[in-house]
Amino acid sequence: MIETSWKHDYITTNGIKLHYVTQGEGALMLMLHGFPEFWYSWRHQIPEFAKYFKVVAVDLRGYNDSEKPQEKSAYVMDEFMKDIQGLIKGLEYEKCILVGHDWGGAIAWCFAYAHPEMVERLIILNIPHPAKFSEGLRTPGQLLKSSYMFLFQLPWLPELLMQSLDYQLLENAFKGMAVNKNAFSQADIEAYKNAAAKRGALTAMLNYYRNIFQDKMFNKSWGILEVPTLMIWGEKDTALGKELTYGTEAYVRDLQIKYIPDCSHWVQQEQPELVNQYIQDYLGL
């Protein structure tokens, strides 16, 4: 499902070239994907919201057709936030509606705190507020669910495991975690495998995790976020427990949460119509 009306383009910001897909005109809606995805994870949202906005779904640094710096030090939150700031300005906007899932959501949380003037509305899918995630990682239940993060700290072995048997682990991540297995066609799985197979991509994707415990995301105190925020949460996320959302209102002044039962971590791909409806309602479209 690749729409012919989608435009592929590149922009150089913060010293690296980022690839993005765009459709529509108007105010900017910027979409940030998670691991192990790329812009394609927003395929069900791009055409829907292009009716109202200029939608830009970017490949984060290290992913798919974006540049892939080799140094591990290139994959830290400060650099991710500079990428997003430069992207918004490079597209000649002052602010955006920022939408993020998984790692893209973590970047979106941090960016909204650092640059609230550049975020009109924040929409977060299946990633907790950094303070709540940090709390969760001190509990046995969430530590067990996040055990893959500790495996990813190792050099070269995670790459070998993910490449083996034609990227079978990647297919398992999508289809294994999904409640509705039909949410991912074989063509979807192949698109994700092909993106991960690009030279340097796997190591770059894993380097996000290899810096995570030293990063400021888990090593700072969080104040009250003033940006109006919508959280959408698939309740059957096996990687991130629903309880990580409880108490988020202590950190966000204007918060709405929409839970989707019988839905996994891959919420915008597994329940696209409901996700789109919740976002439309929230934005008053």
Automatic annotation (TrEMBL):
The enzyme's E.C. designation: 3.3.2.10
Organism in which the protein naturally occurs: Fischerella thermalis JSC-11
GO molecular function: epoxide hydrolase activity
AB hydrolase-1 domain: residues covered: 28-270
Protein name: Soluble epoxide hydrolase
PANTHER family named among the record's database cross-references: EPOXIDE HYDROLASE
Enzyme class: hydrolase
Keywords on record: Hydrolase
